[in-house]
Specification:
- By secondary structure, the protein is an alpha/beta fold.
- About 40% of the residues lie in helices and about 20% in strands.
- The strands form four sheets. The protein has an eight-stranded mixed sheet, with helices on both faces.
- Helix 19 crosses helix 21.
Amino acid sequence: EFTRTKTIKQQREYLPIYSVREELLKAVGESKVLIISGETGSGKTTQLTQYLYESDYASHGNGMIGCTQPRRVAAVSVAKRVAEEIGCELGQEVGYSIRFEDCTTKNTRIKYMTDGVLLRESLNDPDLEQYSCIIMDEAHERSLNTDVLFGILKKVAQRRRDIKIIITSATMNSRKFSDFFDGASIFEIPGRTFPVGIRFDKAAAEDYVDAAVKKALQVHIQEPPGDILIFMTGQEDIEVTCLLLAEKIASQETIPPITILPIYSQLRSDDQAKIFESSKQRKCIVATNIAETSLTLDGVRYVIDTGYCKIKVYNPKIGMDALQITPISQANANQRSGRAGRTGPGICYRLYSDTNFRSDMLENNIPEIQRTNLANVVLLLKSLNIDDLLQFDFMDPPPQETILNSMYQLWLLGCLDEAGSITDLGRKMAQFPLDPPLTKMLITADELGCTEEILTIVSMLSVPSVFYRPKGREEESDAVREKLLISESDHLTLLNVYEQWKKNDYSGQWCSDHFIQVKTLRKVREVRSQLKDIAKQQNLKLTSCNYDYDLVRKAICSAYFTHAAKIKSIGEYTNLRTAMPCRVHPSSALFTLGHAPDYVVYHELIMTTKEYMSCVTSVDPKWLEEMGPMFFSVKEYYGHRRDRSQ
Ligand code: ADP
Ligand code: MG
């Protein structure tokens, strides 16, 4: 209602941050590093950049105002909103940059970007000279890249006299940030929130999707107007929830209609924008923890909190990160309930008990840097000539073992030498915005003469799955899909899909005929052309192997030789490094076409009740041997390093 009747100027002036605009700018003027804390929705993300812009922090070649976000969705949606508020076309004065998508021009003064993008920029511009101000937004999320940026920006602030660094956070952790930046001042934006009633369940739900659907239905039928926000774990759970809820509502005719809206990071951006559109009927938004603080939704009066989220966790057993559904922390739970009290008093339904909250949930999240693989970060820091990682200024240092594990992986790939210093190959690899194994695949492809093919495969692996199975037409789509499969390799299947599409003039019709997401394939094409540019800059030769697919499989093997498995019996493999049993995932071409080669490599493991290899390619054991020291264990590597340093 408010957004429809008030002008943009009135909306901006209504935000809590507006009442402290002058003091805030004064505080920025007086300090090099400033911590700003305020409730979600107070206007930090959308207003701060504009205030700085209006006060000439970005005029006359002074550089840009950069604002980092831990999430891609947030960077894009906020940039859109601010462009609208300023009244410019997106990409002009206000733009955004996320991996593989740069929507900025030479006119851009306010740039929203993911923290990963800024981190990469620091590779080639260590003092971040392009920027007059850098806002590290949503710092409380403690994403991996944000945590690394903390250390880097602290150094930049010491070297550059003319830079302003602002750290913003929801109302937690500000003291910790201030301590890290040598006692930087904290500016608090006064809050304007309404009381939220908390309703615990008697016990944790057995099936949280089911419980959330029931609760949403009950709220919709019994409670006065106001939107519902459900916190779910990830895309699959969100889709099921939306479907079940829609079915339940459709089956009961007397219920008023409701608009059901999913939101998660892989959702198409025009679908994402729908959550901000006004609606006459009640909205029910089903979200990941992106809606906790990154996106501000007005009009929510009811929050349904499942108590879970999906996070990336390093699994030492399998030697890689895996997404895991985990209980949230108490801090998350409180942020979630706060979403119900933005525009009026609200209610938060927690699908777990008071006891669960007090005894099963940690007080705060474990920062990502302490629970994920650091290969990317280590490579980046090494190429910034930060050699002794154990001495790097981390707010919360990662476990030493994780650092050493990541170094071991990089050493296997040839990015580090035996003394742990970066190699020429490592420097080259750091220039690619990809996980090290994927970059390695590209570089080997250069040696083998199949870069064109590997560029396609790597691009296909960098987007969500291109296949879809519409409900009710599963068999039909499976049959069509089967014709595109290449029996010995899912990677070659991905290549084949792209090549067929290209042969058909990149046609949309071809995609819908083959149950393939055209938008995703177009994205692949874009990613591919960007990677191709970087490959050219790095002097890789752009060559095709002319259907000599053994070369392609060999390049794939060079990247994944640590992810190799040997057949044990029908359907069963043994992981060569960990000796653990694993299977080919049913979505694989090898599974579908009943192909069971002796040796395979895989892109990742999916953990359910069993371990499944996903995206699998058959390989020649000779290639695996050539790849070198794969039976050299992490332990031996440590020993080796220790010997050398003595
Ligand atoms: P904070 O960063 O302090 O949580 P924001 O600056 O994100 O606050 O949000 C301030 C206000 O801007 C919100 O209350 C909301 O009304 C509005 N807003 C933010 N993003 C959008 C958007 N994409 N579309 C419409 N309104 C938005
Ligand atoms: Mg914000």
